[in-house]
Amino acid sequence: MRGLILTVMMATCAAGSAVAQVADLRSTTQFRVCADPANAPMSTRDGTGFENKLAERFGEWLDLPVTYSWFPSGMGFITRTLRAGTCDVVMGYAQGDELVQNTNHYYTSIFGIVTRKDSPLASVDHIGDPALKDHPIGVIAGSPPATIMARAGLAKDMRGADLFVDRRVKDPIGGLIDGVRDGSLDAAVLWGPLAGPRIKDDPDLQFTPLLKETAGPKMFYRITMGVRLGEQEWKRQLNSLIRRHQDDINQTLREAGVPLVDDYGKAILE
Fold first, then answer.
1. 3-state secondary structure at position 181
2. CA-CA distances (angstroms) from residue 61 to 69, 148, 150, 181, 216?
3. What share of the chain is helix, strand, coil (3-state, %, to 5)?
4. CA separation (Å) from 41 to 50, 187, 239?
5. Is 220 helix (H, G, I), strand (E, B) or coil?
6. 4 in helix, strand or coil?
7. How far apart are CA 56 and CA 61, in angstroms?
């Protein structure tokens, strides 16, 4: 996913009027994906990200080879890729964004707390838990849980990281997780698809989904694919594939370690 945080922040920061959309730019000989080359664990140039694996599955279902238009996440990503016509789909995009036309969502995930399994904070399952106070907690600056943490009186305990960096040379999510691992942080509140795959095989760390948060902003988001605004037929074709292959999609995501929740963010899907 292009991660949820990036999606929300790009939509908020986008300036100027939308570029005129031109329909029928889609290739009929390739499944052309717009992606960040260094957005592990989602998309990577070496093809190991879970969005790469999903793209391969969609390519198989369409009987088309998968090709990529690479560009770093952040401002200009959609303009330089999807709108420029160099690719036809963004694999992970938050539902409701106006920069693209959203397909039906193909998974729903959630923010959660990464802790050591032997930590006194291991049982914490909501941000308002008093046990979190006076502990250094990592969080992505400007992300939805950062707002709730500030309201809960945790501002002085927050250790923020900026997601708007060149992730070919910096890894803010990995840095926060390493902080929990080495004890310089007692916890980190992170988006599930960014954190879950990184710790799924770690014997010392755990991810606890924030299923109990009731105050906004919400902690769960439905993830779609993004296509150009005028391409209704292409959207319908992808929607049909999502509907017919949802079980396969879920299996790919679970194998990657992505925490899946129901459409209302109330329960983990097994």
1. helix
2. 20, 41, 45, 40, 38
3. 30, 20, 45
4. 7, 20, 24
5. strand
6. helix
7. 9
Instruction: Write 78-82 long-range contacts (CB < 8 A, 24+).
Output: 78/10, 78/34, 78/226, 79/19, 81/34, 82/34, 82/226, 82/227, 82/228
Q: What distances in angstroms separate CA 230 from CA 8, 102, 236, one per listed residue?
A: 22, 11, 12
Number of H helices, E strands in the chain: 8, 12
Place of tokens 């397909």: 103
User: What is the set of domains in the chain, with CATH numbers?
Assistant: 4-14+23-107+219-256 (3.40.190.10), 109-209 (3.40.190.10)
Helices (H), 32-122: 50-62, 77-80
Q: Is the pTM of this model over 0.85?
A: yes
The SS3 call for residue 180 is helix
| 132: three-class secondary structure by DSSP | helix
Q: What distance in Å separates the CA atoms of residue 102 and residue 57, rounded to the nearest whole number?
A: 19
Tens-digit pLDDT string for the chain (270 aa): 444 555 444 443 433 334 344 457 899 999 999 999 999 999 999 999 999 999 999 999 999 999 999 999 888 999 999 999 999 999 999 887 788 999 999 999 999 999 999 999 999 999 999 999 999 999 999 999 999 999 999 999 999 988 777 777 889 999 999 999 999 999 999 999 999 999 999 999 999 999 999 888 999 999 999 999 989 999 999 999 999 999 999 999 999 999 999 999 999 998
